């Protein structure tokens, strides 16, 4: 299998790099099947007989969604192997691996609402909104992470609210009374105490009922503190209350002000002292969405201060981190390379490069992750490019969306069917390796195929959404010429 995959990776790379139209590699019938573009009626074969990738992605979503509703809800997630619900770890409040994300607020329900919209399931969307109205409230003793709660919950609520209220988007809900916005305001108000620091950089966590408790750690990652502007600005614009946008902007620029002479920011900072706690920088974990929100905040809000940050950061990344194929992790002051690995989160970067208009660079950086995917049928959390024998440094694949997202962005920009083919391979690997009784299970080790009983909400809100949008070429969103952006949680 590895041999076949290696060949495919090299072949794909050569086709792209030589500029040969990769259509030659894919007969038209095959392409039509991937995109679900139906041929002239007499040639039409029933969709049920030949399920194209779009249908299959939809089925994968409903397999996950229906089992969440039946076995997971009202908890945050469904454990896909044992078919049971999972919420916060109440016995161990310090289990931040779970408790940062699982706040006992039906997370998967909230995070998935706009995927139902993408799939044009108005009935499902309205039913989900009704469930949120009936069951979700935030007066809870949960200590959650500001970033995770903002991108998954506030982002999910706001996106669904916008669809429910905008006649021109085609998913308006008739008797909807703004309840999702009210919930988003309530939640944001519960997070606001975290921004009350001398630097304006938020503390990483808040207790939804009690605010800031004493045990709160002051170390936060750059992505966590600096990627809140899209959600908080949207909340301000929808409510007319500037305070949300103001705190998120202040946090973003407080981090940027602390950049080094190389125009580089680090991955971890103390929100009280403003001192860097990690001198490492890169484009992956702990920093990724800082760059993403710099560019997307400019696109959404039109404020050139954000564009300036993106332009300077992007130039610094290319100057200091790029080494032919790879964007390496470096020391933020000296520029010295610090690690021999790249991580799975950095697979979002080609998508951002597309958005920035640097498509050639995106084609190249995507191929690194394509090669990784084709070798392991997943993107291991850390892949070591130095140690050939131990190249899988952290071997799990938690069904993350980043590679799927970049692949989708590249298809939209180039229309090169190669990316449809990559999407079909991703889908097929997910079906073979991760599909279980009640959804899709995270892969504990990409080399052995061992599974974990976990399906994070981003699998429904991002991974399957981007995969569906890749194949659903006529989706209205793919032809929306406005300045909408996907948040970092794909809302
Ligand atoms: C998601 O919650 C978001 O995409 C975030 O930006 C990074 N982590 C996960 C997916 O990997």
TrEMBL record:
Keywords: Endoplasmic reticulum, Glycoprotein, Glycosidase, Hydrolase, Signal. It comes from the Eukaryota. The keyword Hydrolase applies. The keyword Lipoprotein does not apply. Its main location: endoplasmic reticulum. Its EC number is 3.2.1.-. It holds the Pfam family Glyco_hydro_47. Gene3D superfamilies: 1.50.10.10. Belongs to the glycosyl hydrolase 47 family. PANTHER family: ER DEGRADATION-ENHANCING ALPHA-MANNOSIDASE-LIKE PROTEIN 1, ER DEGRADATION-ENHANCING ALPHA-MANNOSIDASE-LIKE PROTEIN 2. This is alpha-1,2-Mannosidase. It comes from Myxozyma melibiosi.
